[in-house]
């Protein structure tokens, strides 16, 4: 018999993806199922018992749920999913793959949050001869992760570095993992570094020092009452902060979240939600335990999985090996949930090895004080832009719960339907390729700029004549009709072409649009990534609303296609500085450069100038900074409410729409923003306020 230290990796074969999209529910409460493989497709409908839908709903909104017999749930899911059309296509695809020397991968894309919470890894068919794809190398079962381009396989000239982190009280989980990994450690395939009683700062330090290939987190994940995900380390770690910590871990390819310990009789959605958030272009695969297991069982699974990865096995087959080991212990195989980005296969490519580093198991890393990142990630309907290089059948959605969902029975169909209350879940949609943009109308070269507040009875012609400007140029810069009456107190950016009288000027940012417009401005500060930007654009498009996007120049340089998409869909693009500094801390020359460089970059990329709208990063300004911004042709804008204050602002707006009229809402480029938007738009419209761009709200 071959010893554990002499294990070999599973043979790598070509993979044929059998993609199954489940949901979302339609208006009648029906749940469509669409299967695709090699250009062929089958369509069916999912019919689940109300008790199963209720189970998923309770797992999302009431925490972990006890399940008397999980295999029974798996059989019910298998019968509901693999109807005759889907089963026929699957068998045909399996025969075709076998004839070509390939294997299938069953990839689930579940677009309804209540359904995504169910334990699909336990699904099975048959009674005498039971077919369980999670235990089959020829039908490896995975869930579709975020649609990004995964990194190439990482060349591995040294042992696979596993960084194991445990929250206070869970050091025994690390001991169990070390025992299970001993054969791989002795064979110099794996190098284990352990951090017991970890805090966010020690985790950050460990990621920098150890440069792990695999992160193993033995810590509870909690879905808080205000819909945030937190890891129960020594000092709670918000899931959004974990994403930030992992962003610089260049060699990290897999993260495993074991959650708390349990007897596999509970369904816990929190680790799965957290794992879904982690996938990006650098981290293509995550494993989360949807049903908590005892520490020894979790360690047994992880050790077999990591050992296979160290030998170059594809991640789906490495997980299958671990699941088979759990099946030998009992009905545990469906606990690990593997989520992968499209085209993710072999994570590590072994090469001739270097010697392993001297190791010391459970070596505590020194504590380093770190500033805690305190921005809460409010759970919403998370949307992701499909990669333009992938065909339609390779478009996957991340399944994350919306903030609030209630279920009702629809009398006409007998199937449950979701009612968003108050914020709805958005089905993902492809972002169209931006069409070529028309060139802007050229303006005369001004000798300078100023800002003028309109007095009662003033006209554009009169303002232009007095200040040394041009009527058409003022109208074009401020996106207004040259013949329309001017609203008193409105601030106008004025291009100057010859000396004239002094303008009324501006000493602080504008905080409100036209209080009699019946409109509210939706504005977005964008400086982080493009994924959330596309999600926000999708949300606006679905509600047929336009917004104003304040972008940084550096962001536009990193994501030029995303900047073009903003303009191509009819939204406004505005200036948010080049590097997002505190304007109270930089000199006048620095302020001018921040504005000019951003406008130059945006103009080159999109064909549009960012004038006249500007927002100070962090809302930080001085009177001197306002004057510098005005001199560059911009009007600075503040806000009526930002992300955290918007819910309370909306409550007051519903009670008193006139108070909210002309308001300016500030949202940031975060996943939660896309989830919030439909509810914000719907509530504004319900009280007669139309959400729109900043320019429209200012008229």
Automatic annotation (TrEMBL):
Coiled coil regions, renumbered to chain? none
One Pfam entry for this protein is Polysacc_deac_1
* A molecular function GO annotation: metal ion binding
Q: Where is the LysM domain?
A: 450-494
Q: Which UniProt keywords apply?
A: Hydrolase, Metal-binding
Q: Name one GO cellular component term.
A: membrane
The biological process GO terms on file are: carbohydrate metabolic process
Identify the PANTHER family for this entry.
Answer: CHITIN DEACETYLASE 1-RELATED, GLYCOSYL TRANSFERASE-RELATED
- This chain belongs to which protein, by name? Polysaccharide deacetylase
């Amino acid at each position: 018999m071959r010893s554990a230290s002499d294990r070999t990796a599973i043979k790598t074969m070509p993979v044929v993806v059998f993609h199954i999209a489940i949901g979302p529910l339609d208006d009648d409460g029906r749940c469509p199922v669409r299967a695709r493989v090699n250009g062929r497709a089958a369509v069916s409908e999912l019919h689940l018992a109300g008790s199963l839908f209720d189970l998923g709903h309770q797992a999302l909104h009431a925490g972990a749920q006890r399940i008397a017999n999980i295999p029974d749930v798996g059989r019910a899911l298998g019968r509901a999913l693999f109807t005759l059309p889907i089963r026929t296509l699957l068998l045909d695809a399996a025969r075709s793959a076998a004839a070509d020397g390939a294997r299938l991968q069953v990839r689930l894309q579940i677009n309804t949050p209540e359904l995504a919470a169910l334990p699909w890894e336990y699904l099975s068919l048959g009674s005498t001869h039971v077919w369980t794809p999670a235990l089959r190398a020829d039908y490896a079962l995975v869930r579709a992760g975020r649609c990004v381009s995964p990194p190439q396989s990482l060349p591995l000239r040294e042992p696979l570095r596993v960084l194991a982190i445990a929250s206070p009280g869970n050091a025994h989980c690390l001991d169990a993992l070390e025992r299970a990994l001993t054969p791989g450690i002795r064979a110099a395939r794996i190098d284990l570094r352990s951090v017991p009683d970890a805090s966010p700062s020690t985790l950050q330090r460990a990621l920098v020092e150890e440069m792990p290939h695999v992160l193993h987190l033995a810590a509870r994940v909690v879905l808080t009452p205000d819909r945030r995900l937190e890891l129960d380390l020594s000092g709670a770690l918000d899931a959004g902060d974990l994403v930030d910590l992992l962003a610089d871990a260049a060699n990290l390819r897999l993260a495993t979240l074991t959650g708390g310990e349990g007897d596999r009789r509970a369904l816990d959605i929190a680790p799965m939600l957290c794992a879904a958030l982690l996938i990006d272009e650098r981290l293509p695969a995550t494993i989360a335990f949807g049903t908590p297991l005892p520490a020894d069982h979790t360690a047994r699974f992880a050790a077999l999985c990591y050992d296979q990865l160290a030998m170059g096995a594809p991640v789906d087959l490495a997980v299958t090996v671990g699941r088979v080991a759990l099946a030998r212990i009992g009905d545990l195989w469906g606990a690990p949930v593997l989520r992968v980005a499209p085209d993710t296969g072999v994570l590590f490519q072994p090469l001739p090895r270097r010697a392993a580093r001297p190791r010391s198991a459970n070596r505590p890393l020194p504590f380093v004080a770190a500033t805690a990142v305190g921005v809460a990630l409010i759970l919403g309907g998370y949307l992701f832009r499909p990669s333009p290089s992938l065909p339609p059948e390779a478009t996957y959605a991340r399944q994350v719960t919306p903030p609030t969902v209630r279920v009702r029975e629809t009398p006409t169909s007998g199937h449950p339907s979701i009612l968003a209350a108050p914020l709805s879940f958005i089905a993902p949609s492809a972002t169209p390729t931006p069409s070529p943009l028309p060139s802007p109308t050229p303006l005369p070269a001004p000798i300078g700029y100023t800002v003028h507040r309109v007095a009662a009875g003033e006209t554009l012609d009169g303002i232009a004549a007095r200040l040394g400007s041009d009527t058409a140029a003022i109208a074009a810069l401020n996106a207004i009709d040259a013949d329309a009456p001017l609203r008193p107190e409105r601030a106008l950016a004025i291009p100057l072409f010859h000396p004239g009288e002094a303008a009324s000027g501006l000493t602080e940012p504008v905080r409100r649009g036209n209080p009699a417009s019946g409109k509210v401005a939706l504005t977005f500060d964008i400086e982080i990534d493009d994924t959330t930007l596309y999600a926000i654009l999708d949300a606006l498009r679905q509600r047929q609303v336009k917004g104003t996007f304040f972008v940084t120049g550096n962001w536009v340089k990193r994501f030029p296609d995303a900047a073009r998409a903003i303009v191509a869909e009819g939204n406004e693009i505005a200036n948010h500085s080049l590097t997002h500094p505190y304007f109270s801390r930089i000199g006048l020359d620095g302020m001018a450069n921040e504005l000019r460089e951003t406008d130059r970059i945006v103009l080159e990329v999109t064909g549009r100038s960012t004038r006249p709208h500007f927002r100070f990063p962090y809302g930080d300004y001085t009177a001197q900074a306002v004057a510098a911004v005005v001199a560059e042709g911009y009007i600075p804008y503040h806000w009526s409410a930002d992300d955290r204050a918007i819910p309370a602002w909306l409550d007051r707006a519903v009670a008193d729409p006139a108070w909210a009229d002309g308001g300016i809402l500030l949202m940031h480029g975060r996943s939660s923003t896309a989830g919030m938007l439909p509810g914000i738009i719907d509530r504004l419209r319900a009280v007669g306020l139309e959400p729109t761009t900043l320019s429209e709200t200012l008229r």
